[in-house]
């Protein structure tokens, strides 16, 4: 065999020590010198310098955590790469020593590229025709960091392709990086970037997944096992039934630790006799991984995802925003209140269990903030639909599964489902519009059983009962739910004004019919709007009524009470005016006057059996049991649709607003029946009672004399 490779290697070491990149490339890759022509061009050097500077600040993707309102209970996580960044001071010296022993024994002697290692690799490659790379920890980190910070497939390919061009850039960047960062900083970044298999990115994830402990507590045996994985996570996987390869690799690392003086020979020998003892953990990912104990929180988690994907603070489009959620390392504290959530869970589905086609759900919102305090429905949050019966919709076909007992569909709102016809709960919108336009609570009309509307082209709706016929005011008309009174009232204020107000209070039109009717050209003639023929979600209705409870101040629905960035700072966004606001801070605006909202609340006390501050309810109401159940001042409104296909109740106190419905999400023509209309009433009343138990009773502020009339 020719001695030319050995001679070349001997000449190369001085070149390396002089820092000549061309020599490094020849040794590392074994390529002919002619192949490297032009690699030292100024443009390439400038690009390398730019990327090197980027690597000093770039951090790897990190898992985002979702907590309950206590900020401590982890509900789930979101990640593409399961990783939690950990400081070097929070890692056991064992893992630092083991990774040096396994990957780069001269880490603390070289300056990013190891001349001896390069020469050794060059000789080995020349003899065998192989591609031994002699990559130091710094070079490996450069490669991982370039891959992790890539934003296009081309950048990923450039960071990982096996070419001499990539190698020379990597070496140059490693040399430059060690001028900018200390060995300790590079070691910290490396151990937080390396892949250990089983979705474990970084040492925190590896320690937890394989041994259910933190990196600070790793023993030498455990550290050697993990360090051995970096070279080939699949080949040396200790979770395989046959641990032969994993044990051999671990023992090699232990021997190297002994040779480098990190372990005594006796300690290494004893450690090699130990079996690999794993304590595997499977970290949850996404909403479907929430534990059984918190299963019902899955619907709130799902709402969080939909809300997040609509927030410009996290990116320009849905894809960017979800990427941020899965890679940004956020700490997200939900606004769901455990006490109120428990009350909601207990009180929905009391009569309709998870085995019913009729969904009974409830959403509780906080007036003045818009924060969602509870989301519950008589369904299991699960992707497994295997045991679900066929859909109740005859047009769906026999192979289409029903939404019960398991579903992840956003039945409570916050997604793309249109919701359910909300019936007379919509009477709040024309009444509120009328009051805000200057009309008074005492506005009176002799409401007939049937009313023919000239404004709405002869449409002639009727009341649910002949007992509603007669002189009505806003108090009695709302308390008894007199259709003909509210059609007459809507004529006077304008249906389009009521529609626009509903939009300002958060309602969105998701069906073609609703969008057409709500359009500027049609809204003035949408007389049936006041009867709730439009679809709405419990989330929308709870939040709209919460604005009335908050004296007309509408706050966007929000599922979080805090969002922290990976560095512990509060997540913010820039307003159009250039101000920075907290993403989790309530976003509120005054929609109607405080007096108009207080007047609407006074009338809304009539349906619940409560007493208004200024007027009379006319002797009876549609949900007169609510006041007695809640045990404190309460307002609200019932709602049913034709043939009672769905039934609703929206109720509120000064502290909380809740909306509950019962309907068949698969088939809106599958009527729930009159006997079921009490279910949402009881769900809201009992949830408000239980959720507010032990809190001081607050009073509604009475309306002014001027608006009473």
What does this structure look like?
Helix content is 39%, strand content 11%. It is an alpha+beta fold. It folds into three domains: 59-80 and 284-334 and 561-584, Alpha-Beta Complex (Penicillin-binding protein 2a (Domain 2)); 83-273, Biosynthetic peptidoglycan transglycosylase-like (Penicillin binding protein transpeptidase fold); 420-552 and 591-692, Beta-lactamase, CATH 3.40.710. The strands form seven sheets. It has a five-stranded antiparallel sheet with strand order 5-4-19-18-17, with helices on both faces. Strands 2-1-3-13 form a four-stranded mixed sheet. Strand 14 and strand 15 form a beta hairpin. Helix 1 runs antiparallel to helix 2 (21-29) and helix 17 (428-436) packs across helix 20 (495-504). The protein starts with a helix and ends with a helix. The relative contact order is 0.09. In the N-terminal section; belongs to the glycosyltransferase 51 family. In the C-terminal section; belongs to the transpeptidase family. This is Peptidoglycan glycosyltransferase. Its EC number is 2.4.1.129. It is an enzyme of class 2 (transferase).
């Amino acid at each position: 065999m020719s001695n030319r490779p050995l001679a070349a290697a001997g000449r190369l070491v001085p070149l390396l020590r002089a820092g000549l990149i061309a020599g490094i490339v020849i040794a590392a890759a074994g390529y002919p010198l002619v192949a490297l022509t032009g690699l030292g061009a100024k443009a390439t050097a400038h690009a390398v310098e730019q990327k090197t500077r980027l690597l000093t600040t770039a951090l790897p993707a990190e898992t985002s955590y979702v907590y309950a309102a206590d900020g401590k209970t982890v509900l789930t996580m979101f990640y593409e790469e399961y990783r939690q960044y950990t400081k070097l001071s929070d890692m056991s010296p064992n893992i630092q020593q083991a990774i040096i022993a396994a990957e780069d024994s001269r880490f603390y002697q070289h300056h990013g590229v190891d001349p001896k290692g390069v020469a050794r690799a060059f000789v080995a490659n020349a003899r065998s025709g192989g591609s031994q790379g002699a990559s130091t920890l710094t070079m490996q980190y450069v490669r991982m960091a370039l891959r992790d910070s890539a934003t296009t497939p081309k950048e990923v390919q450039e960071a990982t392709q096996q070419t001499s061009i990539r190698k020379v850039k990597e070496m140059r960047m490693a040399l430059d990086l060690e001028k900018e960062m200390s060995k300790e900083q590079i070691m910290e970044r490396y151990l937080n970037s390396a892949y250990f298999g089983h979705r474990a990115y970084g040492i925190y994830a590896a320690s937890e997944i394989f041994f259910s402990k933190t990196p600070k507590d790793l023993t030498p045996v455990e550290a050697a096992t993990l360090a051995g994985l970096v070279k080939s996570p699949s080949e040396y996987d200790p979770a395989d039934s046959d641990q032969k390869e994993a044990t051999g690799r671990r023992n090699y690392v232990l021997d190297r630790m002994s040779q480098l003086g990190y372990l005594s020979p006796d300690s290494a020998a004893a450690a090699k006799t130990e079996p690999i003892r794993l304590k595997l953990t499977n970290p949850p990912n996404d909403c479907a991984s929430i534990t059984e104990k918190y299963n019902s929180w899955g619907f709130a988690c799902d709402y969080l995802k939909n809300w997040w994907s609509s927030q410009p603070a996290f990116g320009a489009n849905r894809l960017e925003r979800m990427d941020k959620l899965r890679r940004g390392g956020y700490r997200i504290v939900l606004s769901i209140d455990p006490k109120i959530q428990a009350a909601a869970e207990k009180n929905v589905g009391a009569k309709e269990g998870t085995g019913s086609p009729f969904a009974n759900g409830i959403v509780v919102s906080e007036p003045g903030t818009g924060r969602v305090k509870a989301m519950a429905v008589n369904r299991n949050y699960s992707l497994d639909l295997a045991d679900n019966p066929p859909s109740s919709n005859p047009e769906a076909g026999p192979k289409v599964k029903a939404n019960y007992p398991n579903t992840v569909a956003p039945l409570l709102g916050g997604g793309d489902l249109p919701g359910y016809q909300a019936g007379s709960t919509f009477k709040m919108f024309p009444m509120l519009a009328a009051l805000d336009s200057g009309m008074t609570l005492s506005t009176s009309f002799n409401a007939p059983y049937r009313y023919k509307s000239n404004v709405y082209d002869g449409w002639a709706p009727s009341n649910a009962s002949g007992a509603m016929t007669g002189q009505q005011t806003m108090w009695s008309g709302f308390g008894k739910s007199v259709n003909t009174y509210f059609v007459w009232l809507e004529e006077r204020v304008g249906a389009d004004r009521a529609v626009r107000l509903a939009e300002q209070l958060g309602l969105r039109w998701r069906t073609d019919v609703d969008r057409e009717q709500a359009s500027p050209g049609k809204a003035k003639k949408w007389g049936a709007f006041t009867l709730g023929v439009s679809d709405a979600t419990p989330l929308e209705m709870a939040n709209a009524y919460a604005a009335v409870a908050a004296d007309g101040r509408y706050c966007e629905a929000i599922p979080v009470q805090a969002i922290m960035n990976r560095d512990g700072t509060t997540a913010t966004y820039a307003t159009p005016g250039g101000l920075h606001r907290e993403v989790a801070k309530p976003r509120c605006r005054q929609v109607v006057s405080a007096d108009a909202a207080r007047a609407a609340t006074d009338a809304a006390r009539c349906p619940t059996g409560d007493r208004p501050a200024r007027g009379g309810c006319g002797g009876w109401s549609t949900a007169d049991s609510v006041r007695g159940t809640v045990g404190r001042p309460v307002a609200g409104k019932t709602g049913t649709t034709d043939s009672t296909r769905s039934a609703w109740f929206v109720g509120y106190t000064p502290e909380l607003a809740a909306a509950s419905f019962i309907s068949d999400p698969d088939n809106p023509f599958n009527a729930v029946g009159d006997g079921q209309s009490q279910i949402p009433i009881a769900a809201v009343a009992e949830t408000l009672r239980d959720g507010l138990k032990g809190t001081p009773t607050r009073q509604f502020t009475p309306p002014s004399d001027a608006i009473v009339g």
